[in-house]
Design goal:
This protein is mainly beta. It has 1 helix and 8 strands, in the order E-E-E-E-E-E-E-E-H. It has one domain.
Length: 112
Amino acid sequence: MEDGTFRIFSGIYHQKIAVADMDSIMLVKKLPEMERSSGFSWMIKEKGIFVDSLNQTKVYVFVDDLRQQKIKLVHHDSLKMFFNFKDSLKTQKIYSILQTELSKPQKNQNEF
């Protein structure tokens, strides 16, 4: 989290999302049905760009451990990202930080 923007990197995959563009955040146990567009699965990791089976939108996945809870972040009305870290405490910490940021009132960008 830096300057009101959440950034996540994993190899060639990365996302940068302003808190103002975030709609919701929640913890989930499983990933939904998706089709991989690019990326990889290896043992307990899942990384890459997927396509949501229901609405055909891109979904970014940065999951280091499929066995643990994942953070589902919805942004720009309907775009989704799922992520977690090897360390479940780090996942919980980031979840708490993002939840706190989302609960703060956002400044109206049209104000002068």
